[in-house]
Amino acid sequence: MTAFWILAPIMVIAALGILFVRKAVHAALLLAVVMISLAVLYAGLDAPFLFAVQIIVYTGAILMLFLFVLMLVGVDASDSVVETIRGQRVLAMLGGLALGLLLVIGLGQISLGTAVGLDEANEGGNIQALANILFSRYVFGFEVTSALLITAAVGAMVLAHRERLTPKPTQQAQAAQRVQDYAESGKHLGPLPSPGVYARHNAVDTPALLPDGTAAPTSVSRVLTARGVVRSAPALAEDIQEIDRQVGGAPHAGGRDAATPASTTEDAPATGDDA
Amino acid sequence: MNITAYIVLSGILFTIGCVGVLTRRNAIVVFMCVELMLNASNLALVAFAKQHGNLDGQIAAFFVMVVAAAEVVVGLAIIMTIFRTRRSASVDDASLLKY
After folding, report:
1. Better-scored residue on pLDDT, A264 or B97
2. With contacts defined as CB-CB under 8 Å, which chain A residues touch B47?
3. ipTM score of the complex?
4. Which residue, A86, B11, B39, B61, is the most exposed by fewest CB within 10 angstroms?
5. Does B66 touch chain A (CB under 8 A)?
6. Does the beta-carbon distance from B50 to A1 stay under 8 Å?
C-alpha cells in the first residue's frame, strides 16, 4: 500500500496535466508517467505478468507509436484554444466534476471486505496460472484476438499506404531542375548555407550572418522558424557581452573578437545564396 | 489489504480521461485520453482480481491491452490519413459531414 499512496497523487497530477498542457508531446510524456506508475501498482497487486506487459506493450509500443505519429504530424499540431461549441469546455468540466464526485463517493462507500488475495491462485507462478486459464477457458477469445491483431495490422498498412501519383524524380531530373531554376530565377545552384558557427554558440538554431550583419534566412530549418526558436542577432550580441564580462576585457574589442570569425566563416555560402 | 482505494483511483483516472476526450481539440491527445480511460478500467480489473482471489480479472485486463494496441494502430493510421489530406490534426476540422 505504501507504493500506492506514493504513486496515486503522482498519477492524478500527471493525468490532470494531460488535460492542461499545450503541447501534445508533453501530454504523451505525462501519459508515460501514468502508465509506468500503473505498472508498479500491478506489481503490488500480485500481477507480475501484467506489470511486464504494461511496460512493454503500453509504455514501450503504444506510447512510442504516439510519439512517432506526433513526429510525423509535425510541430503545428498544438491545440487551438478556440471553442467550436460555445460553453462546451465549461460544461464538460462541470459534467466531469459531477461524474468524478459520483464515482468517488459511490465507490468510496462500498464495503468489499478483506481481499481474498491471489496467493492461492498464483501458487505455481502467476504466468503459469494465467496460461492455464488463457489456453483453456479463454482459448476462443485468444484466437479471436489474433484475428483482430491481423486485421488491425493490415488495416493500418492500407490506411497509411499512399500510391505515388507522379513518377519519382531521378537524380538527373533534379540536377536539370536545379540548373533551370538558376537560369530562370537565379536561385543558388549549390546546397543551402549551413547554420552559424560562432565562438559561443554552434547549433542548428543559429542563423548564419550575411556580410552586412543580417541573418541568412535559408541557413536555418523552416521548421525551427515556424516554431519561433531561432536565435536572433540581438541574443547573440548579449552572448558576446556576457563573454566580455566573463573575460573582463575591454567590452568593444572583446565583442569584435568574438564576432569576426563567425561572419567571415559564413561569407561564402551566404553571399552565394543572396545572389 | 483493502482495494477500495484502488477502485477510487481508477474512477478518478477514468473521469480525467473522460473530461480530456470532451475538452481537448488535438485528435492525438483525445486518443491519449481514451488510453487513459482504458488504463483506469484495467486498474479496476486487476484490483478486483485480487479482491476475489481468481485470475479472470487479470485475463480481462490482458485482453483490454491487446484490443487497445489494435485500436491505437488503426486510430493513429486514420489520424495520419486525415492529417495528410486536411493538414490538420484537430477534431473540429474534419466536419464535412455536417454540410
Report:
1. B97
2. 45
3. 0.93
4. A86
5. yes
6. no
For chain A positions 136-195, those within 8 Å of chain B (CB to CB) are: 138, 141, 145, 148-149, 151-153, 155-156, 159-160, 162
CB A1 within 8 A of CB B1: yes
Q: How much is the average pLDDT of A189-214?
A: 76
For residues A165-186, average pLDDT = 90
Tell me the pLDDT of chain A averaged across its residues. Answer: 81
Is the minimum CB–CB distance between B46 and chain A shorter than 8 Å? yes
Is the separation of the CB atoms in A193 and A270 below 8 Å? yes
Burial class (CB in 10 A: 0-12, 13-18, 19+), A170: exposed
Res B90: pLDDT: 80
Are A53 and B32 inside 8 Å of each other by CB?
no
Pick the closest to residue A4 from A33, A32, A45 (CA basis).
A45
pLDDT confidence of A48, banded at 50, 70, 90?
Answer: very high
Q: Which of A15, A142, A7 is nearest to B11 (CA)?
A: A15
Are A121 and B74 a contacting pair at CB < 8 A? no
Quote the pLDDT of residue A199: 64
- Give yes or no for A6 touching B (CB within 8 A): no
pLDDT digits (tens, 9 = 90+) for B3-25: 889 999 999 999 999 999 998 88
For A243-256, what is each residue's pLDDT tens digit?
A: 778 887 655 544 44
Q: What is the pLDDT of residue B15?
A: 95
Task: Measure in Å the smallest separation between the Cα of A132 and chain B Cα atoms.
Answer: 10
